Fold each of these.
Amino acid sequence: MSWRDSLTSIPGTVAQLINESASTLMHVSSSLGSAVGSSGSETGGSEESGPQGGEYRALPIPASLVREQWRLIFTSDANSQDLQAAIAHCRDLVLLSEELSEERRWLVRHLVDLRYSLQELEEAQEQQSDMVVMNAIRAVVGHHFVPHHPHHGKRSRLQAAARRNYCDHCTTIIWSVVQSSYVCSDCGFLVHQKCIDGVKRVCAHVLVSERQHPISEICPEIGLAAQGYKCAECGTMLNIKNTWIEPRLCDYSGLYYCPRCNWNDSNFIPARIIHNWDFSPRRVSRTALQEIRLFLNKPLIRLEEDNPKLFVFVEKLSAVKKLRQNLVHMRHYLAACRMASELKLVDQQLGGRRHLAQSNEFYSLWDLSQVESGALTEFLQAVFKEFNNHIRSCPMCLAQAYICEICSNDEVIFPFDDGCIKCDQCNSIFHRVCLTRKNMICPKCVRIQERRLQLDRLKSSENDDDDEVSTDDDVAAAE
């Protein structure tokens, strides 16, 4: 039995009461006006205000769509997923309906109302979430704590079940089901809600901003006596007068910490990589671990300036250096190419690692770790291949190619080609073999030097002539 038949079986007063209640509960959804209009058309009809605020007479739902109304019409408590499903189903029905039919007319108008309702719902949820986050942010010693929700999403629930979270302040387990927790949006400091006011560790993001570079000395230990036998972070006494508290050395900062501030976490040390190319993990404090993670993707290390001998002894570094030099040359061609700019070729290939093609000086800790694993070499080779394919197939890039003037070969060459060399003085490109035959003397530089000598001779001869004329004039004036 349809819902229209059930309404007709109820006395008129009760049916009118049900209709009025339904219109009151579902006036937020524009689709509801259509449903009420269909029942109102039988009992006299009434005007409802639409989502745009204008007055229109609701169209009755066609009889052929009555059985589909449970998938198309929702109350005010519907969520965004319900509305998205209704929009998808309504769109499918529009495609299946006949043109200029009553069903298509009703479906198109209902589809517009559903999309408008979904947009209003999403905007309301976004404003509510922004207000909740702004109100929930708490600032303590440089940290910006926001509520931590580890159980959002199926994957997050599985990860939370496999790994326990511990409070960085009191070191106890955070039972997410019954305990509220906060996390710093800058450094990842995780803490119980009850422990926020007792946090003493300065945010690692503040330390990174002040230091600007990782510590360059290998474990600059100063000793317990210089620390006053106290923990470098919380000030806990590290002596044996009352109770024994194990002092733990941080290999990154060279300071001693108590077990609450140093959990024996292991990580590679930037200074050991720069000086010894040593990636073995060492024990670090919680502050050092968060600081190294913040430095991880920042291209701040001038490796060739800090330790140039590494490029001699580490073959992987020399290969990466050569690839980066080639990418720097390629970037000049791509920057002047209109087609490459329209395709956004550099952004597509490098993403957030544009520093790899801007110069070959700066490295990040993540770059150095990938050099050791070989991943960076593979990545740069793939980027080089894509750039090379574009430059050799693009007429605008080919127009900027060179021809070796020593051998006068018709083959076009580029500064990033193997077997080619670039003159540092005039930026001309030659075959390495051809320039070697000329004793590495650039013919263009020779021509430029000869022209300069000729100009100097002309200027000197003109000056001599001027001096002779002025001398004759002085003699004539004296006579």
Note: The radius of gyration is 38 Å.
Amino acid sequence: MKLAINLCLFLFVLVISGDKSFSLTDYQIKRFCKNEKRHLTCIKNLRKKRFDLNNGKLIEVPVIPFKR
């Protein structure tokens, strides 16, 4: 019984939050790209990726390793 309740709750959470995607705002894009060497190209690329993400297309997200 407990397994069935947990399974139903898990599926309910997946259905509610499964189709939402969070993309960067214009301010966040400008703040992220201001330290880049070619900031206009960076802004253009991130806006294109945001547009593709909002339209449901897959995008590649680079992973930058953390250095101490």
Note: The chain has one domain: 21-68.
Amino acid sequence: MRFLRIKFVKYFTYVSLVMCLSLVFSFMWLEKSSENVFFDGPIMFTNKNPNFQRSQPEQYMTDRQLNPILRTFDCGKLFEGDHLELNRADEYLSNVRTFHYFQHRDNDDFRVLALNCEEYKKSRGYFAAPSNKLEKDFPIAFNILFHRNIEQFERLLRAIYRPQNQYCIHVDKKTPDDVLETMELLADCFDNVFIASKLEFIIYASYTRLIADVNCMKDHIERNFEWKYLLNMAASEFPIMSNLQIVQILKEFNGANDIHEVFITMDSQRFKQKHFTYIDIRTKSGYIIHTKKSKGDPPHGLTVTKGNAYNIYSRAFVEFVLEDDRARALLAWSADTFTPDEHYWATLNNLFSNPFLNTPGGFKGHPDKKPFFGRYIGWNTTRHVTRCKGGHYVHNVCVFSVLDLPALKDRHEVIANKFDIEYDPIAYMCMEEWLHNKTLNQEGIKDVRMYRKIAVQS
């Protein structure tokens, strides 16, 4: 008996020593230099759904694991503008679009994946630890507005996911229940990814689009996570910059917001007349009702400023939006305006016209002279026609194609709006590969001085 007790003590001591050493080495690994690779494995997708059946042939799938033709295109050559490779890719895409759009993976695939979270995260190559101390010490919050196509959302999440950041996913209330359930399963696999606590029926150009972001902002603050900046995104967007590069840029902002402001293209009818939002909960549909009823002036003598729905916000600005009576009054006043997400943020950030707000991180210079790095967008205008080589627009915004890749690699903006894997899976695949390589190589911003322009007049 005494012999067994001694043996047990030795075994317990040995196990304890191994566990301690494991913890020490894990901590050392977390703090290692940027020369290390922090992915668990290659970007793979193992289908384990026995009931999975494709309704389209392989050459029409959006995922390169299912469509081997996609893997034959050289992304390096496409980004460099190689005419032969660009023409070959464009011809393939055009031929498929003649008869079909590409088909995304079945949503059930992701439901099955999320049943084993650890295997899911490992097989898909999610980050298990921060890449370096700079990123570890500068956590970022993200809002992602989702409305369709789980595959594209999951690929975006994988591209921007870091364990030190926090992600709020707003799922459009119009989405089917099974889609919401799958999104909840995916989010539950991460401690720092969550579905917004209050969901909205998103009607294009309505107040509900703005409130969806505000709901996520409330959740980010209430979770008591010490993030520095917040970026709001649509699930159809994709970053131009890696997480490391975004951190470098945000540090140059030094507390200033990167919120688009402009007077030149102001359309006052958007807020001088009332626009009501109609929602049919039974059919999960809705639309804007345009009226000729005059609307009262904005509260507190605010000068309304046109801007962008997607921006980069300091934490202090988000807290101001949620707590300041003037900001809340403007939000309530905006309820019956048209596309309020394109004037709410800009108005609060415009300290040239509204200096009495003293908005944290606000811009004191003239709005038309304000730089904006948050988004690269190809609007359907003569001025932006060269930004959309494929010529495909949705809501007057370019859906970037493989032909736009050479221009995208040289941009200084943080995020590109927008992509659609069902329209051009090659462009999206190459953006993933390009960002993945920048991340693994720990590629930083070569010249950060241009980003300081945001902070100069804030």
Note: Residues 131 and 411 are 24 Å apart (CA to CA).
